[in-house]
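Feature request disguised as a bug report, sorry. It would help if multi-protein outputs had a clear separator. Right now it looks like this:
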Amino acid sequence: MDNSIFGLIIFIIAYIAGRLVSERALKILTDEEKGRLLQGFSKYRIFSLLGVVVLVIIHYVLLSVAPNSYFATIQVFVGALVLYLLVSSLFSFARLKKLNLPDKYINQYLLSTLIQYIGIFIFFGFMVSRYS
C-alpha cells in the first residue's frame, strides 16, 4: 500500500475519533452553554475557513511558480499550516475560557483537537516522506 494512502487512512480515522470526542463533549454543556458556544464562535468559523483557503491558494501558487520544488513547497505549506493551527488553537482556547465554559468541556475539546492534529501531521509526514 502506498504510504500516502496509509497516511490518509490514519488521518481519516483520527479525524473521526476527534469528532466523536468533540460530540461527546457537547453533551457536557447545558443548553445555555451551547448557545454561548455557538454565538461565541459564529464569526470565527468564517475566518477559519478563509484562513484555510488562503493557505491552499498560496500552496498552489508556489507550486505553479516553482514546479520543480515540490518538496520545498510542501515544507512551506506544512510550516504555514502548523503556525495557522497553533494560532487557531490558542484563539479557540482563549475564547472557550472567556465564555466561561466548564473545564471538563474545554479538556475534551483540547483532546479532540490534539487527536485531529496528530492525524494531520501523520498524513503530511507520509506525504513528505514520499518525495524525500
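(second protein starts here, but nothing in the output says so)
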Amino acid sequence: MPAVVLVLCILTIIGSVFGLIRCLLYEVVADFSNNTDYWRGYAFIICHLSTLTAAIIMLTRKVIGFWIYLASQIIYIGLIIYTLYSYSNFHYGASSDAQALSYVFTLIFSIPSVIMLVLYLVLVRIHLN
C-alpha cells in the first residue's frame, strides 16, 4: 500500500474518532439542556461513522471506501453549511458576535475536511483497486 494512502487513512481514522467524541459531547449538552429538537448531532455522528468505515475499507485497498468517503464528506460539509445557516443572524436573530463565532467554528471544522477531500481526490483514487 502506498504511504500516502496509509497516512491519509490513519489521519481520517483519528479525525473521525475525535469528531465522534465531539458530537457525543454535543448530544450530552443538548440532553442536559432539554433540547429535544437537536438532531444535527446525530447527523454528524452518522457522517463521522461512515467516514471512519470508509477509511477502514480503504485500508483494504477497495475503491468502494473512496466513494463512501467522498459521499460522507460532501454530506458533512453540506451539514456544516446548513448548521451555519441555522445559527445565522437571519434565522435566529443572533448577535453579530455569535454570528462571527459561528463563522469561525465553520472554518475550523470545514477547512480540514475540504483539504482532506482534495487530497483524497488527487492522491488516493489512483492507488485503490
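Even a blank line would do. Unrelated, but nice: The longest helix spans residues 3-32.
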